[in-house]
Amino acid sequence: MNKLVYIAGPMRGIPGFNYPLFNEVAIALRKTGYQVINPTEIGDYFGKPEDLEKDSRLRDLVMSIELLCVIKCDAICLLEGWENSEGARTELAAALERKLEIIPSPIRVIS
């Protein structure tokens, strides 16, 4: 059985809410055999990132679903800048509590 991995990283304040990087990392992880939970795909069920940004109740609902996903995974993949994201820090705390494996991002961002 392939490991199930959750991707965590910053979204707010990044152009396109960092969707391109999340999606690129999801593709790279899937190509190496991981099953991947990409929070951008979860958020898409509830609307555009801009909609979630405007509606705190909806954003909180999505975050609750994402945290449930984290605790059901085998590992968490941290994107660059995760430490600057309240959501990613919360996801990492849940992962550490469950003793999930921590996987670095297979894609580095060059600034």
Topology (elements, then pairings):
Layout lengths: L3 E5 L10 H13 L3 E3 L1 H6 L4 H6 L1 H17 L2 E4 L7 H12 L3 E4 L7
Parallel strand pairs: 1-2, 1-3, 3-4
Helix pairs in contact: 4-5
Structural summary, described in words:
With 111 residues, the chain is an alpha/beta fold. It has one domain. Helix content is 49%, strand content 14%. It has helices at 19-31, 39-44, 49-54, 56-72, 86-97; strands spanning 4-8, 35-37, 75-78, 101-104. Strand 1, helix 1 and strand 2 (35-37) form a beta-alpha-beta unit. The longest helix is centred in the middle third of the chain and has 17 residues, at 56-72.
Q: Any key phrases for this structure?
A:
single chain; 111 residues; 49% helix; four-stranded parallel β-sheet; alpha/beta
What number of domains?
Answer: 1
How big is the Rg?
13 Å
Number of DSSP strands?
4
Strand order of the largest sheet: 2-1-3-4
Q: What's the rounded overall pLDDT mean? A: 94
Query: So what's the overall shape?
Result: globular
Q: Could you tell me how far the N terminus lies from the C terminus, measured between alpha carbons in angstroms?
A: 36 Å
Low-confidence parts, pLDDT < 50 over ≥5 residues?
A: none
Strand-residue fraction? 5-15%
Q: What percentage of residues falls in helices of 4 or more residues?
A: 40-55%
Count of helical stretches: 5
Structural class by secondary-structure content: alpha/beta
Name the helix and strand elements from N-terminus to C-terminus, one letter apiece: EHEHHHEHE
Query: Main sheet?
Result: 4 strands, parallel
Oligomer: single chain
